[in-house]
Amino acid sequence: MVLKRGRFGQFMACTGYPECKTTRRLDQGKKVPDIPLDEKCPQCGRNLLLRQRRFGEFISCSGYPECKWVKQNYIGVKVRSARLETWRRRRRAAQSVLRLFELSEVQVHVSV
User: Fold this and answer.
1) How far is CA 98 from CA 27, 77, 108, in A?
2) How buried is residue 34: exposed, middle or buried, by Cβ count under 10 Å (0-12/13-18/19+)?
3) pLDDT at 92 exceeding the cut of 70
4) Rounded Cα gap, residues 61 and 48, in angstroms
5) At 59, phi and psi to the nearest 5?
6) How many CA atoms lie within 13 A of 49 on its CB side?
7) Could you tell me which residue, 35 or 105, shows the higher pLDDT?
8) What do you get for the CA distance between the two ends of the chain, in Å?
9) Which of 87, 68, 71, 91 is nearest to 79 (CA)?
10) What is the pLDDT of residues 21-47, one digit of tens each?
11) Chain-wide mean pLDDT for the chain?
C-alpha cells in the first residue's frame, strides 16, 4: 500500500493498480459532529443544525430527509468567480513565460 492524494483527501492505495483496486481512507476520524442550534426551522419547526461537509459549513434542518431546508454560510466570494480568477492568473503567468522564451537569444527554426 502507498500513500496517495485524491480529491477527497489522502488515502492508501494498492501498488498493484490497475489489477488491484483496493483503497483505504485515512480521514475517517476527522468527521466534524453536527452542532445543534437554538433556532427553529422556518418550514417544519424542528431544531437547526450547523453542519460541516465537503463544500464548507451550512445550517440545515435536523429532520433532513423529510425537511430539506438549508441555509448556506457564504463568505462573500462565489466559488465560480474565485476559480475563474485563479484560471486567469495562471494563464497570465503562462503567457509571460512564453514571452520570455520569445525574447531569448536561442531561436528554434524548423526547416522543411
Assistant:
1) 40, 31, 13
2) middle
3) yes
4) 5
5) -110, 130
6) 14
7) 35
8) 51
9) 87
10) 888 887 665 677 888 988 899 989 999
11) 78
Residues 6+ apart with CB under 8 A from 3: 10, 11, 12, 26
Query: C-alpha cell of 37?
Result: 442550534
pLDDT for the residue numbered 94: 81
Ramachandran angles phi, psi of 101, nearest 5°: -65, -35
CA dihedral for 76, 79, 84, 85, sign (positive or negative) = positive
Which one-letter amino acid corresponds to residue 46?
R
Average pLDDT over residues 53-57: 74
**pTM score above 0.70:** no
